[in-house]
């Protein structure tokens, strides 16, 4: 088949609506994060009425959202999550794995790297020690964000309004008696967490399991992941927790620095 024939065959399988929608998403850049529908129509040579329908569809899917003016658009959390899933599957895990392994060797505890996907947290990298509690979660395990310390760390950038949109129900499903019952309670916990370098609790999601979680920051100081230490049992001294927290914070700082360096090197 010649080049013309291959091109013609490829075009037969092209979905114009999907192509136009993806072209809209890729029009948003770091330099131009906010665009209007008329501007998108002009740049992409797409009829305005079609652009408005496409934007409406993308908005419903969470891939774009209105800016503060209510007229223009920017990428939504859905599109950002898609981009970060790629990062999580490559750079984040590749850069984070040796850091987790070093942290595990220093602390003697299982260490995890977790990202948020909507209302869930997802384990994307682990460095475990062989204990009876080492296999309670695996790579790809999803847990409810509102009921875990990792989730509280990963939700910290959301405003109260955004948190309400994510959890519109009046009562949050409880995993343990420590789970916040309402969005307002969850938000208050998150705000308290923000005043500290780490969060720690015993039996917050599972009995006899203690978790210490630290935010990992990307560009612009946004939380992109949570790094944590899982400790079995409930015999912890304040000195021990302070030492674990110091090591975890240093590891999270190292990973944050690497992620920022990789992102900056692309410009």
TrEMBL record:
The keyword Transcription applies. Residues 78-261 form the IclR-ED domain. The keyword Metal-binding does not apply. Keywords: DNA-binding, Transcription, Transcription regulation. Residues 15-77 form the HTH iclR-type domain. InterPro entries: ArsR-like_HTH, GAF-like_dom_sf, HTH_MetabolicPath_Reg, Tscrpt_reg_IclR_C, Tscrpt_reg_IclR_N, WH-like_DNA-bd_sf, WH_DNA-bd_sf. It comes from the Bacteria. This is IclR family transcriptional regulator.
């Amino acid at each position: 088949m010649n080049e013309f024939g291959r091109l013609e065959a490829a075009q037969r399988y092209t979905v114009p609506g999907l192509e136009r929608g993806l072209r809209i998403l890729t029009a948003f850049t770091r330099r131009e994060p906010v665009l209007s529908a008329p501007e998108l129509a002009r740049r992409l040579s797409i009829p305005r009425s079609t652009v408005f329908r496409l934007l409406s569809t993308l908005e419903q899917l969470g891939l774009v959202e209105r800016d503060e003016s209510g007229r223009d658009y920017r990428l939504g959390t859905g599109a950002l999550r898609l981009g970060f899933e790629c990062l999580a599957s490559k750079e984040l895990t590749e850069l984070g794995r040796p850091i987790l392994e070093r942290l595990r060797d220093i602390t003697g505890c299982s260490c995890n790297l977790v990202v948020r996907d909507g209302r869930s947290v997802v384990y994307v990298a682990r460095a475990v020690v062989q204990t009876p509690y080492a296999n309670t979660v695996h790579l790809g395990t999803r847990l409810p964000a509102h009921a875990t310390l990792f989730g509280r760390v990963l939700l910290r950038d959301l405003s109260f309004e955004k948190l309400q949109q994510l959890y519109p129900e009046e009562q949050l499903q409880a995993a343990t008696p420590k789970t916040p019952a309402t969005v307002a309670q969850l938000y208050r916990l998150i705000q308290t967490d923000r005043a500290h370098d780490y969060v720690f609790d015993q039996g917050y999601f599972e009995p006899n399991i203690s978790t210490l979680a630290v935010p990992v920051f990307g560009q612009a100081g946004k939380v992109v992941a949570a790094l944590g230490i899982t400790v079995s049992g409930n015999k912890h001294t304040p000195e021990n927790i302070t030492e674990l927290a110091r090591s975890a914070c240093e590891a999270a700082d190292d990973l944050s620095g690497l992620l920022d360096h990789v992102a900056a090197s692309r410009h």
